[in-house]
Amino acid sequence: MPIAFDPMEAIQETTVGKRLFIGRSHPGPQQRLLMKNYEISTIGAAIFMFVFAAQMEDRQESLTDIAQRYKITGAPYRTLLNEYFTLMKKRMIVSIPYRKNTSPLCCMVQPFLMKMLAQGDLGSDPFDPADPFSLIQAISDLWEDRVEKEITPRYFSDEAKILFKKMAPENRLHEMIEAFPFTEQIMFVIAAIDHITAHRNGVELREFAANFFGSIKEQAAFLRDVTQGKNEMIKEGLIVINDRGDDPFSRSPEFTIAPKARMQLFGANKNARKEKLNIPGIFAHRSWRNKGLELFFDGSLAAELGTVARALSRSGDGRRLFSRRLKERGMPTGFTALFHGAPGTGKTASVHELARMVKRDILQVEMSAIRDKWVGESEKRTRAIFTEYRTLAGAMSACPILLLNEADALLTRRMDARTSVETMNNTMQNILLEELEKFEGILVATTNLTSMLDAAFSRRFLYKLEFPKPTPAIRARIWRSKLTELTEAEAFALAEYSLSGGEIENVARRYIVDTLFSGKPDLDRLESLCTEEASLKGIGRKKVGF
Question: Which of 37, 116, 372, 509 could form a cystine bridge with 377, CB 3.0-4.6 A?
């Protein structure tokens, strides 16, 4: 007797028809394989083979169809019915809900079994009660069938409940979700599947509800509970709703598995060597190991930056102490800072220096790259900044610094929207305000404009550091650091030009290039470059008219 199942031979064996169902036909090789492997009778195997053959031919079969086709009545029909329910109890076949113009007792081969047999595999149930990923795989297969409308919501739920009951007590996933309602358990597993498959966008809440529930009433009740904060997994922080402040009835938020839950489920070790991170395009990833510029500040700003560095330190009396103290008092634990001042005063460079000091990478966002001409796309990208940051923060060895560089447009006062662009700006600002309110990581925003700063943003930044234009003494130090051949007197003479640190660097670079080709230093040329740089800011420039 063969040891492998042959789908085509099994279909061929069903051609003997009625004799299979009344026990007058000798079982064929495929029928005997099914009888031995699944411990079923000759008639039970015959029913199973007919249902299997129908699915292979993309049609449905029912016990009523079989009985009518072969005129099976009386005692033989009762035997047929008994074997049908035996197959149901063994969960080898499942019923299909009765619909108009279909026969009663319509059934189908259980999906995972159908897939195995179609591939010639007679293997037993692959489910491992102690392995969390075995359950995730089984739910994934069921969910795929549900999304494709191959099974009903009721069948999905029934099968999923059986799988959950099979889990061993020591199963890590069982320990995490057993105390929560069934719907939330499914949410968690679907979010875990989304994370494993690296879709990264999360699972749409409304789409999940449409696939999981069988009625509009159930979907509405589920969305209402999420909106009203009644979902226990969300309250416990195992699932994160990325649009938590929005109304799920007007737009479809997405949910993901929270970083702390990922760490618990996947057993990730933050100190372990990480695989290369998949950084989304909205971020520029800057390692803290990158050497930055030498910076010079006056005493007060240097002291404030030192305080920030201590608050972000990875040592026990740094970030952890900072978070614990605030948490004990019921205050938000996120660190947010606004660096403001004129262009070229060292705002962005200071963030990079802070990152080097506290050994935290930077995820830098150029806010100009977030804007898009299509309606809704800019708002979606703004939300994605924080969604993706939370995901990466859970995967990196140390919580990174989220840098919103040149965030001027987002931080200005909101206005009455008269155009689609103004509406987009207001929506982006509202999203930023909402995310800052619940932010739990480390964020620094830089801006050149403070006179137009919206008051709502001002209170959401814990630290607000002003970067003034450098004093003559600081400018002289910057000159000496850029051009070491300058004497102290020459540096102080050049410091009379009211240039920012960035402008001094521009002049120094231009001077180095010039002397490279001329072959000798020319201080007069250096002064003329300073005059030229200063004139670009309007100093001494003549008004042009017509």
Answer: 372
